[in-house]
Fold this protein.
Amino acid sequence: NAGVTQTPKFRVLKTGQSMTLLCAQDMNHEYMYWYRQDPGMGLRLIHYSVGEGTTAKGEVPDGYNVSRLKKQNFLLGLESAAPSQTSVYFCASSYSGRGSYGYTFGSGTRLTVV
Amino acid sequence: SQQGEEDPQALSIQEGENATMNCSYKTSINNLQWYRQNSGRGLVHLILIRSNEREKHSGRLRVTLDTSKKSSSLLITASRAADTASYFCATVPDIIQGAQKLVFGQGTRLTINP
């Protein structure tokens, strides 16, 4: 019963370094999302994907890139990390059938950029 | 930009009492969802209510939706210590290519005192 798995769970980066956050889901969900959570700001959508090979920008996409080469994986990349990207990052997925469904979230990646 | 605003920001009650949290939003919605987040963990989907529904129940949870007032409330009855968490409302303004882009509020921090 893995659901949505995020790796790594914690990471400290120096300004200017790059890294990739991995999200994997085993529920055969079509839709996947990346959010960031900052104190007092709630969660904000970075990028999302409606299927393998597709990605789209969310509310706060600047400084991030994403890829969805396989249906079960959604990668979030930071090319040149900045202190403003210090945050907790959550990946989520959702079912694509008729009707409305809730998200399944991963447990998050806590990223600190120094 | 955030769609929902929760009220109160923090709530502390005694075990066994009922807890009510409110959410207001700005634009028309397809559906509204409530999530729980325990400290340091991912979000867990609690309940979804569609725009044509007025009330929904799930165990000890009761959600109401008033689209004319653009507001929703979450009632937790007979609270337990395990209900201590942050609760977020999230709206779906529209569905694009089947994807529901959730817009989160800032959350209500609920503390249940033994």
Remarks:
- The mean pLDDT of chain A is 93.
